[in-house]
Amino acid sequence: MAAAASMMPNFGQQISSKNDLVPDWTRQEVSTGTTIMAVEYDGGVVIGADSRTTTGAYIANRVTDKLTPIHDRIFCCRSVHPTLTLWADPVCRGAWPHLLCGGFRSGSAADTQAIADVVAYQLGFHSIELDEPPLVETAANLFRASCYRYREELMAGILVAGWDRRKGGQVYCVPIGGMLVRQPVSVGGSGSTYIYGFMDSNYKPGLSKDQCLELTAAALSLAMERDGSSGGVVRLASISEEGVERRVILGNQLPKFSTH
Amino acid sequence: MATLTVSRPPFGGFSFENCRRNAVLEGEANKVGCSLPAARKTGTTICGVVFKDGVVLGADTRATEGMVVADKNCSKIHYISPNIYCCGAGTAADTEMTTQIISSNLELHSLSTGRLPRVATANRMLKQMLFRYQGYIGAALVLGGVDCNGPHLYSIYPHGSTDKLPYVTMGSGSLAAMAVFEDRYKPNMEEEEAKRLVRDAIAAGIFNDLGSGSNIDLCVITKGKVDYIRPHDEANKKGVRVNELEVAQLTGDYKYKRGTTGVLSKTVLDLEVVEETVQTMDTS
């Protein structure tokens, strides 16, 4: 894939731009603009995402499910351009990682779907070999391995969250470039920039599951209100020892705030 | 990633070694005044809808080469397996070859498992192949079919991402078709209602998008039966040119009556058989 990387983008443009009958956005890559979020609580994790996938200015899928199951108790939230997912880690917050690499491709739903498929396969295989449910940290490391190895070609930011017997509920963040860090709360995607302030002021350690669900729903609806690439419905899931509970909050049922 | 292929196992995508040379040649050709032929694209409106007993796939029938219509009645609904069909938008060659390759692999897979293939399998094969080529295969597909788990509909983008939805549209006319779907789609429709909805969606694409046109093809897939209706609706019938004075059809008749051309002279040469040999062939 990396063989003729420097040559690729120019010629792609030349060949396809001759035909004016076909509008521009049909040639654009499908990207998940996105806002995703994951919160740990005592006994499990709560994850949430918006549901919009865009090709340029057209919404290709307004009901996307970005919460992808990797294993029974492990999910991943897929996103692109996770600009500042190092929010909750106090050590890293000062460093502003420059995540605009290469720029040939605007990053895509295809990358995140492909990585998730590969990791689900690897994790399933590993779990059968072990004869026990896999650890969330293992899943996160598998994501990191793929994202780091193909960092020049891929542009995908992933939040891995789940429950296992060893450490309970965990959230791991794997941004573009292939770093791996565990955080109690993490937000990602293009819409995440709009809710750092909200998360800073409203998150406290020791929240219950319902408080986490409310916090996630509120944060996501705020981000969806301000970010053009995020929208649709809010998909939530809570993962614990008992299992996975999924719910959807439709557009008209989103929490309302004073300015909108 | 384990994949099943006919001959050799899949490996990395295209080789771009000759791109620079090709660009130079194209530049030189343009200097002289000629341009390279454009790839034939299916401008296209394709769509699909899940109804109570199955799926309905629809497509227009225009294929364009630049600004010229290359084929007025091309078939965009491709066969994948007896219970799965796929509409293709984008570069015509890419959609044709991709669907044929996956159809072939799926048939081998189905013989190996001994079962009717599932739509999810076809989806996996298509997305893994398109991802491997990183979007350089310009095939945007609407895949639909009915298997043991019911009716399924997927949209597959050239870069390899897929969406599983109850109604999808693709191609340059997809916005027009999606407008019709968003207005009139209901879950669990009857077959006639679904066919009318798809027909109207494709018609919206045909009449509002320059890249789509001609007729409307439909494919209705239900458990155990496939109705490939081509054409379902001739939305754009070619007019008949008539010579008003003689009230005779001018178009389409290229046969001349015997005696139209006058015969000046006639010479008959008898061919003499000089030698006759018979060579037997072993056809066993």
UniProtKB/TrEMBL annotation, chain B:
Question: Superkingdom, according to UniProt?
Answer: Eukaryota
Give the matching CDD domains: proteasome_beta_type_7
Q: Please indicate if the UniProt record lists Protease as a keyword.
A: yes
Q: Which UniProt keywords apply?
A: Cytoplasm, Hydrolase, Nucleus, Protease, Proteasome, Threonine protease
Quote the PROSITE patterns the UniProt record gives. PROTEASOME_BETA_1, PROTEASOME_BETA_2
InterPro entries in the record: Ntn_hydrolases_N, Pept_T1A_subB, Proteasome_bsu_C, Proteasome_bsu_CS, Proteasome_sua/b, Proteasome_suB-type
Q: Which Pfam families match?
A: Pr_beta_C, Proteasome
Give the catalysed reaction(s), semicolon-separated.
Answer: Cleavage of peptide bonds with very broad specificity
The Proteasome beta subunit C-terminal domain covers which part of the protein?
251-278
Oligomeric state and partners? Component of the proteasome complex.
Function of the protein: Component of the proteasome, a multicatalytic proteinase complex which is characterized by its ability to cleave peptides with Arg, Phe, Tyr, Leu, and Glu adjacent to the leaving group at neutral or slightly basic pH. The proteasome has an ATP-dependent proteolytic activity.
Q: Which PANTHER family match?
A: METALLOPROTEASE TLDD, PROTEASOME SUBUNIT BETA TYPE-7
Similarity comment: Belongs to the peptidase T1B family.
Supply the name of the protein: Proteasome subunit beta
Gene transcribed to yield this protein: psmb7
